[in-house]
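A quick aside before the break. I want you to see a complete sequence-to-structure record at least once, exactly as it would be stored in a machine-readable document. Don't worry about memorizing anything.
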Amino acid sequence: MSKSYDSLVSLLVEQFEVREGVASPEKTLGELGVDSLAVVELAVAMDVRWGIKAEDSGIDQKTTLRDAAALVAERTAAQPVEGS
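That is the input. The structure line, written in tokens, reads:
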């Protein structure tokens, strides 16, 4: 999978107790046991880690890991490289 997918799964495993072997691109956050409060916490974590503003993320329990990883990839690709 992509670097953004791997990073997202790592975040879910580390902070949201998602079992790594259960995660797959087509699974939704809800299917992984991420409840509505945890979705909000995930949005905040995505802001801290990748600068994706919670209000701009659009993630919810129906968001697949593939879609969330695509968001991470899209938003981090648009960020300027430090030192440029």
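Two observations worth writing down. Helices lie at 3-16, 36-50, 54-57, 65-77. Residues 30 and 64 are 9 Å apart (CA to CA). We'll return to this after the break.
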